[in-house]
Amino acid sequence: MDYKKELDKLTDNQREAVFDESNVCLVNANVGSGKTTVLISKIIYLHYVKQIDYCDMVVLTFTNKAANEIKERLTMLEENLNMEDLRFFGTFHSVALYLLRELLMVDQLGYQKDFFVIEPDEEVDIALRIIQEEKLKIKYKNRLKKRLEQERVSRYQDDLIELRERLQKEKVSQNKMTFSDLLLNTVHLLKEASITPKWVIIDEVQDSDKMQLEFIDALMNKNTRIFAVGDPNQVIYSWRGSAFNVFYTLKDRYQARELSLSVNFRSNISILEVAKCFLQNGGRLTGNRERGNKIIVKRQYDSFQEACYLADRIKEIHDTGIPYKEIAIFYRLQNQSTILENVFSKNGIPFDVSLKKTIQDIPVLNWTMKLLRFAMNEKDISSGIYVLSHKDYGERITEKAAAKLLKGCSDMSHLNHGDMFSIDLNFAEKEDFFEESLLQRMLSFRKRFSKVEIPEVDEIYQYFSFDTHLHPTAASYQEDKELVKELLRTLITYINEHKMSFLEGLQDFINSSSLYGVNILNKDINNEADTVKLMTLHASKGLEFSYVFIIGVNNGLIPLQAKSFEEEDEERRLLFVGITRAKDNLELSYYTNPDTYRTMAGESRFIRMIPKHLIESDDIERESVNLQELKRQILAEKNVKMDMIKNSDNSTKTLLEDNEVDVEDNQVEDSEVQVEKMNEEVEVREIHSTHNGNELLTPNELPVRKVSHAKYGIGTVTREDDLMITVLFKAYGKKEFMKAFSELKEE
Ligand SMILES: Nc1ncnc2c1ncn2[C@@H]1O[C@H](COP(=O)(O)OP(=O)(O)OP(=O)(O)O)[C@@H](O)[C@H]1O
User: Fold this and answer.
1) What pLDDT score does 417 carry?
2) Which residue has a Cα nearest atom 1 of ligand 1?
3) Has 230 been labeled as part of a binding site?
4) What is d(CA 623, CA 611) in angstroms, rounded to the nearest whole number?
5) Of 424, 445, 653, 676, which has the maximum CB count within 10 A?
6) Mind listing the pLDDT tens digit for each residue in 608-626?
7) What is the pLDDT of residue 739?
8) Same domain flag for 452 and 378
C-alpha cells in the first residue's frame, strides 16, 4: 500500500496536525473526528517523509488493542516490517517493562533483570502477610489497595508508612514489581540513562495520570518532540487517577501548540444530537453526515425478555443485508453478557464476547500461574505459599507450614538443590515431604528445563504431576485438567510465536498475563469475524458499529451508583463513549423489573436528559425531567443502598466491574441521616449551624478538596455521598447540592 494514499485521505485540519512542525503539539479533538487516523498518519509521515526510524519513536497507547492496531496498519504499508523496530510501541506499562528489562540498570534498585510483574491484588496479599507477621496496626484494611495507591502519608494514626517501607523491601527481595513500580522505577532510572527518542507520540492522552506524565517527562531530552491526541469528553478512567486537566498540564509544561479537530465523521446527525446532551457544559459537536433514524428507547420487562427481543431484532437487521459484525451490544457490567450468550446461542446468532474471565478468575489457572511463577523465581515466597497451601490443589498443607517450609529453603539458599534435599529437613512437617514433592519439582524446574528445546505440553504436565495435584477425586478434576492443558498449549504457542527460548518465553508469558491478563486465554475479540460483538461500555472505546444497542439504562447500572460527583460525571462520559460508537442506528433500553436489587426499575436519569423530540419510543409515556420525580427515584435508590449496607458484613467488598465499593463502619449511620435529610429539600439549601455533620471522616481526616460554584465562588467540600455534596463557602456558609444537577467544578 502506498503511504501517500494514507496522507491524501486527510482533511485540511487533519493535515495541519500531521504536518505540524512545533516541538510539542496537542490535538484536542472531538469524538470520531479522526484522532486515531491522525495519529497513525503522523507516524507514517515521520517515517516515510521525515525519514525518522521507528525505533526513534516511543508510541504510547492506553490499551494493548490500540498498540496492535497501529502496528497492523504499519505492517500493511510494509509487509516485511521487523517487529523489533516497533519495540517502543505499546502501552505505558509494556514500554516501561521493555526499558527496565533491556536498557536500564534495575540492579541499582536491588532488582534482577528477570523480575516479574504482579497485579495490585498480589501486592495487597503481600502487605497483609507483612501486617500479620510484623503485627502492624493498619486501619481500614478492606481499603488497603486504595490506601497504598493514594496515601503518601497516612491519613489515620497507624503504621501505613512503615508498611509501605517493608512492602518495598519485600517486593525487591521477591524480585517483583507492580504496575506502578514499573513506571516509578523507569522514571527514576531514566534520569541517569541516555535514552534519547526523537519523538514521543501519545494516544488517548486525556486518560493519562500524573505518573504517566512523569514517565513522558523522563523520556524527554532537549531534542525530543511530542505529539499527543485526546478528547477531554472521553475521560473514563479517572478512578485510576486521570481526573486532572492533562491538556492544561502538558500545555503549561512544554508550551505546546494546541490544535483541534471538530468534525465527527462517524455518526449521523440524529445520533450526534443525542450525544451532545451528554457533553459537559453543552460543548460543540458537529458532523458531516445527514440526519438518520431517530434513536429508539425501549422498555423491557427484564433482561431475559430483552435478550429475546434482541435476538429477533438482530435477525431482522441481518435479513436486511447488514453483517453481524456491524452490530454491537454494550452493557455496564461484565456479568450482564451471560443471559445474552445463552439466548443468542439457542437462537443461532453468532457472537463474540469481549473481556471474558481472566486467568485470576479461574481458580485452577490462578493456582497454575502461581506455580509457574514460583518455579521461575524461588524468591517469590508469596506464590510459593499460595501453591502449597491451596485448599483444593497441590499439597494442601497449612499456610503456616508452607511459610515455615519456604523459610527453611531460603535459609539454605546458599546450598545447591541437591544438598538441600539430602540434609536433615527438620523444618518440614513430614520428613519425607520432599520425596517427589511439588516443592522439589518447582525448585528444580529451571535447572531441568534450562537446556531443553521448547517442551511438549505433556512433558510439563507430567513433570509437575498435575494429575496427582489436581486431585482426581475432585468433582472439577476433568474440567481443571482441560483448563491446565489449554493454558500450557497457549504458553507453548506464545513462546513459538515470539521465537524465544523456553524459560525466557515463559517469563515473558507470565509478565504479559499480568499486564494484559484477559488476552492470554481468550484471544482478543476478532473484529473481522462476522459476529455480533458483546462488550462493556469501557471496552467499546475506540470502536465503531453501524448498529449499537446499549442495554440496562436504569439508575444503578447506567449510571452505576456513584460515590462522588466526579464518578457521576464519569458515568455520563461513559454513556457518551457508548453512544458515539454508533454510526447509523442506536437503541437504548431499560428494565421495568430488573433482576438485581441494586438496579432501580424504570428509565435512568440519563435517558431523561435526552429531549423527547430526539427519541422514538413506541411504548413509553415520557415525562420531561421533573425534580419531584427525581427526588422520589433518588430516595428509592438511597433506600436500596441502605438495605444493601445493612445486610452486608462491614468487611465485605462488593466488586462492581473494575470499581470497588467499600463499606465503611460508619456509613450505615451516615446513610440514615442522609435519607432523613432527603425528605426535607432536594435543591440547594442552607445547612443550619445546628447541623452536626455526622461526617464519614472527621474534618481532620478529610482530604481538602476545593470546588467552585458560579454564584458562591470557591469552597471546601465538607461531606459527600453518592448523590449529595456539601460545600463550605466562605461568604455563604454551608450549602448542599444534588450532584446530578450541581454545577460545581473541581478546583
Ligand atoms: N478525513 C476523513 N474522511 C472521511 N472519514 C474519515 C476521515 N478521518 C476519519 N474518518 C473516519 O471517521 C471515523 C472516526 O475516525 P477515528 O476512529 O480516527 O476517530 P477518533 O477521533 O479516533 O474516534 P474516537 O473519538 O471514537 O476515538 C472512522 O470511520 C474514520 O475512518
Assistant:
1) 41
2) 10
3) no
4) 10
5) 445
6) 889 888 998 755 555 555 4
7) 63
8) yes
Minimal CA–CA distance to 210: which of 255, 152, 260, 140?
Answer: 152
User: 10 Å Cβ neighbour count for 746?
Assistant: 15
Q: Mark whether 369 and 477 lie in a shared domain.
A: yes
Ligand 1 contact via 14 beta carbon (within 6 Å)? yes
Give the closest residue (by CA) to ligand 1 atom 2.
10
33 is in an annotated binding site: yes
What are the residue ranges in the chain where pLDDT is below 50?
239-243, 414-431, 433-434, 518, 626-627, 645, 648-702
**Domain assignment of residue 711, given as a range:** 706-746
120 prior amide bond cis, ω within 30: no
Q: Residues 387-434: pLDDT tens digits?
A: 999 999 998 998 888 988 888 776 655 444 444 333 334 444 444 544
- Tell me, what CATH number does 564's domain have? 3.40.50.300
Task: Give the Å distance between the CA of 580 and the centre of ligand 1.
Answer: 11
User: Reduced to 3 states, what is the DSSP secondary structure of residue 104?
Assistant: coil
Residue 241 marked as a ligand binder: no
Supply the pTM of this predicted model.
0.71
Asked if residue 263 lies in contact with residue 17, where contact means CB atoms within 8 angstroms, the answer is no
SS3 294: coil
Please name the residue whose Cα sits nearest to atom 13 of ligand 1: 266
Ligand 1 near 36 CB (within 6 A): yes
Which residue has the least CA distance to atom 27 on ligand 1?
542
Known binding residue 601? Answer is no
Cα–Cα distance for residue pair 705/739, rounded to 1 Å: 15
pLDDT number for residue 186: 96
- 381 and 489 in one domain? yes
Q: Are 582 and 455 members of one domain?
A: no
Calculate how far, in angstroms, residue 1's C-alpha sits from the geometric centre of ligand 1. 19
| φ/ψ (deg, to 5) at 728 | -100, 115
Please indicate, yes or no, if residue 642 is contained in any of the structural domains: no
The answer to the question of whether 29 is labelled as a binding residue is yes
Cβ–Cβ contacts within 10 Å for residue 143, how many? 16
Cα 421 to Cα 632: distance, rounded to the nearest angstrom: 70
CB 676 within 8 A of CB 638: no
Dig out the grid coordinates for 367 from the structure.
Answer: 493456582
Cα distance between residue 619 and residue 197, in whole Å:
59
Asked whether 725 and 684 are in contact (CB, 8 A), the reply is no
Residue after which a domain boundary falls, among 496, 515, 534: 515
Give the other-Cβ count within 10 Å of 523's Cβ: 9
Whether 542 is in the pocket of ligand 1, judged by its Cβ within 6 Å, is: yes
User: Which residue lies with its CA nearest to atom 14 of ligand 1?
Assistant: 32
Query: Rounded to an integer, what distance in angstroms lies between the CA atom of residue 241 and that of residue 231?
Result: 16
38 Cα: distance to centroid of ligand 1 (angstroms): 9
Of the residues 203, 230, 261, which one is the last residue of a structural domain? 261
Interval between CA 433 and ligand 1 midpoint (Å): 62
Helical (H) or strand (E) element with 293: none
> One-letter amino acid identity for 596?
T
C-beta of 141 in contact with ligand 1 (< 6 A):
no
Amino acid sitting at position 160: L
Same domain? For 183 and 169 the reply is no
Please give the distance, rounded to the nearest whole angstrom, from the Cα atom of residue 186 to the centre of ligand 1. 33
**pLDDT value at residue 656:** 31
Distance 263 CA to ligand 1 centre (A): 9
Q: Confirm if 326 and 529 have CB atoms less than 8 A apart.
A: no
Residue 265 CA to ligand 1 center (angstroms) comes to 6
Residue 727 labelled as part of a binding site: no
CA nearest neighbour of 188 among 253, 293, 106, 263:
106
User: What is the CA(542)–ligand 1 centre distance, in A?
Assistant: 10
102 and 196 share one domain = yes
